[in-house]
């Protein structure tokens, strides 16, 4: 039977059934027979005749969930009162909120936090704009900006539908690195309009995290904003992903005993993430990368070369391979998927080199599911939290912004990204590396502080830090309260 990921599809069934021995057991058996995993069972009401309980069940997906519910409904004398999807319940009213740091108890408090006292603070900032880092939320606040055009692998679902992901990113910023991030979902798709809007909202923020903006517009939007703003602008899907992929590859190569310069790498999906990962791998010493898009291998002979496709034709595929993704994969050491679900087959895996590495990172459903790939790959990773080896940009963005904010960096440089990748990889000592453990868990409390510290140092070395702290001034990072300043 297929294994069921932990809680990605979790239902709570409220059921009413006869209050007698064995009745609950029959319901739980029906759930199990339908392939569901029973979690908590809670009492709602116990009566003389009938009882009501909440039964939490993990299912593979929504179709499987419906099948489980039908199996329970079909039992004699059992009534399913209602079914709630725990993931939806978690989203009711959104996932984050803004809170005050202090209480307003007296007129005195009010006259300092607000009029008239606040006016003196405003004037001080007007005279010295840099003091906004000391006197406002700027130094710890990041805007998570999207236009909703490349939300996960779901594509262009628009700014409203993008909100749950952006709220999620804000939660992760807070949980892992104590950064206050705010979702900004723009109802605009035109490059100039997005640039203008972000520039206009920038004064209140210490950094801009661009998220889920589709290629090729994302490249120009990021480049222009980097040039025009004096705070870090970082397109997470490009650089966060690239940093984590590099970290994972550094560790995977230690396991399989191969070197960057000897690898044959196939990148599938040449959008925001694919292009940035290709560039960081080239910078790290990989020589043989083959890019594939919907039309197969990108090579100089194709008649649809424009933008990044032309760049691929000129800078990758040194052997001049042509054909399909399957052709490219023959003898490949690494498959890097940043595309869409299900495009990789078991046959493709069998044609790869010895000890193949597969990073199937499309979200929420990877290019091949780990259970299918099992036995045909040496190292397997996805972007999901419900399988081992989660290669997800969440390993990068909280720590990289923590380090950038703490150094009051003007930008995030290549050196800061490489330092972040080394820091993530270095969290796992070489002797602890195994196939299912090439990247630390996102819950590993060492990750964000290690990334932040490496990034803060690299910011100072690259000359983009407004503030350079000595080691002894750096008390700590991350979710540790009270150590930000
Ligand atoms: N795990 C992670 O941390 C992580 C990070 C970033 C992106 N991703 C995933 O990578 C995917 C791409 O994200 P993006 O931000 O680069 O989006 P994007 O829209 O910029 O790029 C997607 C690219 O995939 C191409 N594509 C579509 N179907 C294809 C196919 N059958 N074969 C090859 N290419 C195909 C599109 O033409 C496009 O160029 C998404 O599924 C996203 O969830 C994962
Ligand atoms: O959001 C994620 O889980 C990772 C990434 O940013 C994506 O767009 O898929
Ligand atoms: Mg994303």
UniProtKB/TrEMBL annotation:
(S)-malate binds at residues 363, 392. Divalent metal cations. Prefers magnesium or manganese. Its cofactor is Mn(2+); Mg(2+). Keywords: Metal-binding, Oxidoreductase. Transmembrane segments: none annotated. InterPro entries: ACT_dom, Aminoacid_DH-like_N_sf, Malate_Decarboxylase, Malic_enzyme_CS, Malic_N_dom, Malic_N_dom_sf, Malic_NAD-bd, Malic_NAD-bd_bact_type. GO terms for molecular function: malic enzyme activity; metal ion binding; NAD binding; oxidoreductase activity, acting on the CH-OH group of donors, NAD or NADP as acceptor. It holds the Pfam family Malic_M. The keyword DNA repair does not apply. The keyword Oxidoreductase applies. Residues 12-86 form the ACT domain. A divalent metal cation binds at residues 211-212, 237. Residues 466-485 are annotated as: Disordered. The active site is at 114 (proton donor), 169 (proton acceptor). Belongs to the malic enzymes family. This is NAD-dependent malic enzyme. It comes from Rubrobacter taiwanensis. The lineage of its organism: Bacteria, Bacillati, Actinomycetota, Rubrobacteria, Rubrobacterales.
